[in-house]
Amino acid sequence: MKRNRFFSRRQFLQSTAGAAGVSLAAASVLLESTPLLATPSLGAASDRVRFGIVGVGMEGSDLLTKALTLPGVECAAACDLYDGRHELAREIVGKPIPVTRRYQELLDDRNIDAIIVAVPDHWHKQIVVDAILAGKDVYCEKPFSHNPADGLAMVAASAKSDRIVQVGSQRTSSVLCAKAKELIDSGAIGKLSLVEGTLGRNDPTGAWEYPPPPDLSPQNLDWDTWLGTAPKKPFDPMTFARWRCWKEYGTGVAGDLLVHLLSGMQCVLGINEIPKRACAFGGIYRWNDGRNTPDVHPVLFEYAGVPVYMRLSLGTETAEVTRFMGSKGIIELGEFSLSYTPQMGVDNAPSYYAGSFPGRLRGPYYSQWHAEHDPKPGREPIPETLSFKGNDYDDLRPHLWNFFESVRTRKPVLQDALFGHNAALGCHMANESYYRRTAVYWDPVSQSIKS
Question: N or C, fewer C-beta in 10 Å, the chain?
């Protein structure tokens, strides 16, 4: 069976992590996912999940490739508005599956159980709602929505149905995130006081300056349909390939990258909420290519009663790390590893403030402090830093597996429509704060973002 020969960005980073020098502390533990073949026999045709995919671009082709590695899963049809991706879909699947420009044909096929949606953000709502109404389970790429109203419409459609809806921000299925949650739930870091996340890139591809397909033309692309609800404009290959650069089609660095940080954070903390408020800064500092979304976008949120600072940049490569900081230590969640560094939170020596005491008071203070706090010789504490290694924390294969297992068993997924909507709202608030140049909050009465 043929497979897509192209590495995704994350696959490339994962394959080169060792060469880049991943830092591991002592007491390192390798985390492994639950074996995918643990599910009982999938030999019968009735056990197989037949899916159709809408959108076979950069993300869609990776989703299709990964899905086909899972047992009991079969691709029944593919849809894309660019004919070249019909060819690509058949290459990946390894046989001449039905292909079309009209996603409604997949929804009308009673033999298709589920739909994978991997299209530009401004098309998510229409396809997801239509798929739910057609009785299909849905896997929708992140961010769930292009704007708050779209998210509300999808949540409402999901709530009125019995369909499985899972959003494709994969950290909720990562063993690294699960271990971080286990540590926090056990009280390892004490009282949480601050969360910070960083994610930075420093290359044209990382900044979405993708090369359009060389043969792209109005003859092999349905350009008017691709524009959808966005303003009409003449055919433009750059817009097609680099749609993330413009808010008319995408949600910028917030919807592409911040949503991963927020989804992973909510999973680790065991929360599913909209931030109380958001204040963002940034601008276009490097990629002056006509885009209207920032390439540097730091945001300060309030989640779960604590400040959450997220720093995003397309101008400087930085490690992808989320830090959970508390009174008893720090958990650092990286791409391929997790570390826990305990902190005692107590004085290790007499207070230096005692240096302001006169000698007649300072001496007795020191003596009393040592008598009360010095450990017995040979019983000195040795705080132990723990480190865990695992597959990357955006591990796509387990996330797809969880979706298809839910399609089979009808058990709910963690990252459902409401979870995806709340995570996307954090991104929309970050964008609105940037464009309005002021702090914003979510008004539950009007169901809108306000300044």
Answer: N
